[in-house]
# Entry
Amino acid sequence: LKRVLRTYTLSLERMLVQWHAARAVGGLGDLAAMRTMAHTLKSSSASVGALRLSMLCADVEARLRDGRLEGIETQLDLLAAETERILAGLLPRVGQA
# Structure
């Protein structure tokens, strides 16, 4: 279990850096990259019990896929904040192997 959580945590850390880079691109950011990242995180987050993050990813992915951009910045902020919250909870636990 610890190995799975460590792998998830490392992936989440990399994804968060990529997420911020994608958002920094002009306008709303690199929407295609954010959609791919949301899709990737959706399943892996559900698998480890990060259900709120998984639900946020599903919402962001659907909005970006369908071109429903109204309120997307708020959802992107929530997704990033939830990712940081999950990392804060996992990092102390997985670093103790």
Summary: The mean pLDDT is 90. The longest helix spans residues 2-24. The chain is about 80% helix and 0% strand. The helical segments are 2-24, 31-47, 51-66, 72-94.
